[in-house]
Amino acid sequence: MSVTLRTTNPGDESFLYDLYCSTRNEEIAAWGWDASQQEAFLRLQFNAQRQHYDLSYEGADHKIILLDDQPVGRILVFDCERECVLVDIALLPQLRGNGIGTQLIQTLLDEAGHSGKPVVLHVEKHNRARRLYERLGFETVGDTGVYFKMEWRPETL
After folding, report:
1. Is 28:38 a contact under the CB 8 Å cutoff?
2. What is the reported pTM?
């Protein structure tokens, strides 16, 4: 299995939407909405997230995660002067928990460590990825109600 990254392009829109939906399917299904209601809500949320990321993280590095040249996820990283922000990372459900996310985040931590920058992220309180971040050395440094703010600091700081 070969994991690589490539820059997103307009042809990725459908994949990114499907990927987004895969991260919300369980939550949305529990609400008892019919398929058209779910679709409308997910499309609205997907577009809102994209607009938020575009406005808040202008110039972020947005990559498609490829496994053997097939899109399986995305990673969005915003590198600024004082810190590196892991804005979003998502994998298709069948590939979660098999080390791809760990590998990509560890690479990000290595790069940030060489630059002497902390890495920050926000994670929903009930998201199981929080355990992964803790294993990689992130600590909870804030609580916004729905999200925990987590931070990893290189040893040199």
Report:
1. yes
2. 0.92
